[in-house]
Every structure is written in C-alpha cells, then in structure tokens.
Amino acid sequence: MAAHPDQDFVSRVLAVVESIPPAHVMTYGDVAAAIGSRAARAVGQVMAYYGSDVPWWRVIRASGHPPIDHEAPALEHYRAESTPLVWPAAGAYRVDLRVARWRP
DNA sequence: TGGGTGACTAAGT
DNA sequence: CACTTAGCCACCC
C-alpha cells in the first residue's frame, strides 16, 4: 500500500490509462510521455501492481504485442471492443498500432 | 547513499 | 520477422 500524495507517478499513469477510449491503445512509452516522463519500464511496474483497476489491456508494447503473460485475457477484451488486430502467425497476434494507437 | 529489478524501447544480428 | 544487447527511469531494500 503506497501512502502517497495524489500527484505521484502512479496516479498520473493510471489517469492516462483510464483516458484511453475503447478500441484504442497506447504504448508504455506513450503513457510515460503523456505525463512528461520516459520511464516506460516504470509504467509497466505501475500496471503490474495497480493496473488491476484500469483498462490495462489498452497499454501495450511499441511492437504491438500485449503485456507478457497476459496475451490471452487481453485478446478477450480486444475482441469485445473490436480493437484492430493483425495475425502474423497462427496462435499469435498483435494490435494494429497503425489504426488503434490513441493520440491525446 | 548505493545497487538491483522490471507488464519497456531502439538498434543490431 | 524473431531474438539479443545496451540504455533508461522510477521504485524498493
């Protein structure tokens, strides 16, 4: 439990993720940039711990791949939101960043 | 104060 | 296109 003021890195990251509309996604780097930082890895840490209450599946890697070990549940959300996907191989997929990338 | 860690990224093989 | 290497940043011990 992090006792913290409401302007720390974590709160800002969560605020940006919650602002991403359905059928759209942002990369970890984009989220970090949105709050004036380049700590893409720190964003991942925040999602891993606090992401349970935000649309974490809308935050993916720059390559279009969903978070490691979370591809399956993420896919369920993408299908429900009609997020544009591409299938370079059977059993594997990635988000079509060209269309789904959200730019505030 | 210093060092290790990770739901990352970009560039090179 | 997939894997590897080095660089970066915020957080925890």
Automatic annotation (TrEMBL):
GO BP term, example: DNA repair
Keywords, comma-separated and alphabetical: DNA damage, DNA-binding
Gene Ontology molecular function, alphabetical: catalytic activity; DNA binding
Pfam family, one: DNA_binding_1
Protein name: DNA-binding protein
Domain Methylated-DNA-[protein]-cysteine S-methyltransferase DNA binding: 8-66
InterPro entries according to UniProt: ATL_DNA_repair, MethylDNA_cys_MeTrfase_DNA-bd, MethylDNA_cys_MeTrfase_DNAb, WH-like_DNA-bd_sf
